Amino acid sequence: MSLFAAPNGVLDKLEKIRRRFLWGGSEEKKTIHWVSWEKVIADKDKGGLGVGSLKSINISLLVKWLWRLRSESSTLWAKVITGVHKLHDKGDDYYSMKSMTGVWNNIAGIKRELEKRGIPHENIIKKHQGGNGISWRCEITRDGKYKVSALRHILEDNGHVVIDSFIWIKEIPLKVSCFIWRAKQGRISTTTALSSRGINLPTTTCCQCNSMEETTDHILVQCVFAKTVTEWIFNWCNVPLISFQTVHDVLDYASNWGTCPKKKKRLLSICYATLWSIWKARNERIFANKRLCATKVVDIVKSTTFLWVKHRGGKRGLNWMDWNILPFKSL
Ligand SMILES: [Zn+2]
Predict the structure, then answer these.
(1) Is 269 domain-assigned?
(2) Who is most buried in 52, 99, 148, 160, counting CB within 10 A?
(3) What is the pTM of this model?
(4) Both 210 and 150 in a single domain?
(5) Is 331 a domain residue?
């Protein structure tokens, strides 16, 4: 991947294996693809899952060799490559020289791949003539040094994929964050979503209130059970409650609440835990026929966020008694 331009057919096969791994499918068994692959590979800064495409990783790694050849031109290996391929005679533009052979033919040919994507190579690595002679600067990073991740982000910035922004929090377990990321897009396995994808179910009515269709926003936000849990959690946090209708509303409110960034992040973590715990209570009801009352779910939210902040967030001195009174005391 770092030296050879992988053929498109090979990349397609590898991407297929990755998709199957993520979605748990196989040749024999089809599974539901809850989120499009474009959203899965899209950058986290753009609201995606940040998995990245193999093609963009391949291109970015190959460009790194061009960067090294130019920025380390005084090293022995760069002199050998320059001498073997007579690059001194080619001027600056030796990206697309057909006379180059072996792995360097792949690397030099990357210019065409970049141009296909509307990125002139001069926009990535540029020659600068200064008082100290010629120097090379990477135009896509702040410090002027090439980074594989910087070019990957540009290549994966697919303007066709529109995704809601999402805040990833270190102290929140990845599986919980991924669940909330999916819930924000309405892509979780509610009975209504399963039914619309052809799964035969005895009912699509909400198991908690038995009166409405079980959609993502209903089960996690609008249902009387979810409303009760959310109200008590907001009371505990001493944060004014407004009428939420969607998961997006809850997360948007928490990420814009108040002026202290640390408090915003803490409230957002608690909201993630609240939505996750409401979903877990729903699963207990459906799959274990176990009914968790709202107070129990509130207790679970308090204790799980306490453990996440204390151990995953590195707040070792966090006190349970203080936490129980107000979760912002330790900030
Ligand atoms: Zn309900």
Answers:
(1) yes
(2) 52
(3) 0.77
(4) no
(5) no
Answer yes or no: do 180 and 287 share one domain: yes
* Same structural domain, 41 and 182: no
The mean pLDDT value of the chain amounts to: 86
What range does the domain containing 19 cover?
Answer: 8-155
Distance 297 CA to ligand 1 centre (A): 15
Q: Which of 155, 190, 221 is at the close of a domain?
A: 155
Q: According to the model, what pLDDT value does residue 171 have?
A: 93
Could you identify the residue written with the tokens 């529109």?
162
- CB 39 within 8 Å of CB 51: no
Max avg pLDDT among 60-69, 102-111, 130-139, 212-221: 212-221
What is the Å distance from ligand 1's center to 206 Cα? 5
Cα(91) to centroid of ligand 1, in Å? 70
Q: Total structural domains in the chain? A: 2
Sign (positive or negative) of CA dihedral 300, 301, 306, 312: positive
pLDDT digits (tens, 9 = 90+) for 141-169: 999 899 998 888 888 775 556 677 899 99
Task: Using the mean position of ligand 1's atoms as its centre, give its distance from the Cα of residue 209 in Å.
Answer: 4
C-alpha distances (whole Å) from 262 to each of 166, 285, 321 are 17, 35, 20
CA of 229 to the centre of ligand 1 (A): 13
- pLDDT of 284 > 90? The answer is yes
Distance 314 CA to ligand 1 centre (A): 36
> What's the CA-to-centroid distance between 215 and ligand 1, angstroms?
9
Q: Which candidate, 23, 15, 13, places its Cα nearest to that of 57?
A: 15
Q: Is 229 exposed, middle or buried (0-12, 13-18, 19+ CB in 10 A)?
A: buried
Instruction: Work out the pLDDT band at 256, boundaries 50, 70, 90.
Output: very high
